[in-house]
Amino acid sequence: MNLFNYPRLLRRKGEYFDPVELAKITEKIVCNGDKRKYTNFYTVGVYRGISTGYGVGCCLRCFFCWSYWSRDFPELYGKFYSPEEAFNLLDKSARRAGVNKLRISGCEPTIGRSHLIKLLELVEESDYPLFILETNGILFGADKSYVKEISRFTKVHVRVSLKAGLPDTFAERTGARPESFELPFKAIEYLLDYGVSFHVAAMTDPRIMHKSERLALIERLKEIDIKVAANLEEELIDPYDTTIVRMYVYGIDPVRFFSRRPW
Amino acid sequence: MRSSFEFKVNVILSILRAASEEGEDISLNELLSSMPDDVNKFCKVIFKDLLSLPPRVFLARLMYSKTWVRPFEVAAKKFLKEVLSK
Description:
The complex is a heterodimer of chains A (263) and B (86). Chain A has helices spanning 19-30, 83-97, 113-125, 138-142, 144-150, 167-174, 182-193, 211-224, 226-230, 241-250, 254-259; strands at 31-32, 35-44, 50-55, 79-81, 101-105, 130-135, 156-162, 198-203, 233-235. Chain A is α/β, with parallel strands linked by helices and 263 residues long. Chain A has a single domain, classed as TIM Barrel, CATH 3.20.20. In chain A, a hairpin with a 2-residue loop joins strand 1 (31-32) and strand 2. In chain A, helix 2 (83-97) packs across helix 3. Chain B has 5 helices and no strands. Chain B has helices spanning 4-22, 28-33, 37-46, 55-62, 69-85. The N and C termini of chain B lie far apart (32 Å). In chain B, 34% of the residues are buried. The model of chain B has no long low-confidence stretch (mean pLDDT 90). Chain A binds chain B through residues 45-48, 100, 129-130, 132, 157, 195, 197-199, 215, 218, 222, 225-231, 233-234, and chain B through 16, 19-20, 23-27, 30, 52-54, 56-57, 59-61, 63-64, 69, 72-73, 75-77, 79-80, 83-84.
């Protein structure tokens, strides 16, 4: 894999990629030293109001993903911001909206480790009580030392987002090779080992996930820690513009799909 | 009268049930307001520094608390039984 065959929108029966390798290639596009690409900074209503840096670049290609086209074409979107500039813009947006929580969204924030660590150091020194780190768990699962490094921050809460309950369905939905299915579960084990505040979310929408797969996913979490399994946040697919196109390209009719009720 | 352990199990079970219904768009404080009076009053006193947290963040913090870990395990077992029977 290189910049000439960079994976864009997911297609069925495409070749599976190594997500750790894709993260490294993506980092070359979205990071420049300690600077990382963002498209915007604003406050949204989730989590009762949270200031959000909309970052660029991911190492998975989920067909149900809602994030902007910056995921698929990171070369075309965003500007580089240093950790200080990113923190100042998060702070400015939070103050304007009167909220006290921060996060990075729209991307895989663990790509660009030095940027993230420096940004979290600034959060740690600030008065903000909470920074929500939303991740797919690939890079944390691939490198335990990354989780150890995160564990020193008291303001960070990690949300690990699982995409599937079985290796084959993980590959089909994300484009990543089936063996990498294990990485987010490794991340969960490492987060527990280091006592990091975290919870797990999973795309268990019954329109794409069979009951038996949902059961397998919950059982797997139970084997790791029953409390983590109980605190699972289950997600549904929403018809965002980008999701509709990604589904269509993948080979699912979005009109039929979204006319079905999830439950 | 219920034991303190049983009460803690009930508190966590109530929060797990409510969090699964309400999602992340409310704070623990708001979530507690919709709960039985004894749970609401108890939690608002002992968790007073954590009330602004999203419920799942609060539960994640509680997961590591020595005094809450065992009641959490019992509540988790009961809650998962409910979830998996759906």
